[in-house]
What we know:
Elements: E1 12-18, H1 25-35, E2 43-49, H2 56-66, E3 70-74, H3 81-91, E4 96-100, H4 111-115, E5 123-128, H5 135-152, E6 163-167, H6 168-171, H7 184-190, E7 195-200, H8 214-232
Parallel strand pairs: 1-2, 1-4, 2-3, 5-7
Antiparallel strand pairs: 4-6, 5-6
Helix pairs in contact: 5-8
Amino acid sequence: MQQVNNTTNYEFTIIVPVYNEEDNMKNLEERLVAYLPTALYKACVLFVNDGSKDDSLNCIQDVCHRHSDFYYISLKNNSGLSAAMKAGIDTAQSKYIGYIDSDLQTDPEDFNKLLEFINEYQLVTGIRANRKDSFFKKFQSRIANGFRRMMTHDNATDTGCPLKVMQTAYAKRIPFFTGMHRFLPALMLLEEGKVKELPVRHYPRVAGVSKYHLWNRLAGPFKDCFAYRWMKHRYIRYEISANNLKDE
């Protein structure tokens, strides 16, 4: 049984994976501190340090020391975005969870746009409007998104958008694998959850270095699509109709 932690005192936990983002931490702190009092649900922040090799962990600890609604977990080794997201989802005990990248190319304020629909949909995800990335980066994403839609039939427009909210109970049931962050709509549909997309603001990266390149933006997702198709046909889903178990 999962040990109770401080996130159970909140309705909404914002998961923020961090890997070598020390240059972004000051701005990230300011934006999240400004957002929390305005959130539609009582909210906290859960940083997931993904084995950073710079000073990110010390920065995270300092932020958490300064603000009572900020928490963190730190992974022993760099395990990738999907593992960091899974660790955050496994840890969070609030009714709802959100996800935002630490590079702040999306705005925490836009969580409220998504949260308006979280009772009707199990996943509400952003679409990057007026995306502020290079032509080559957008071109790669367009190809990868098109191939993913063909393989998964999830009809999702922009699975790479780093701003999402989910019902925690459904998020915890999603099967995780490396690269799963690109397949959240498809995986939620496997759980018979409903998905909604909404446009959100997008900004250029102003500090730090992108962790994505041609391989993990294009070749990796192609391979993952075949893994998803294999899993989809072997996916276990069941519903208990009766039992004689008693609560202690």
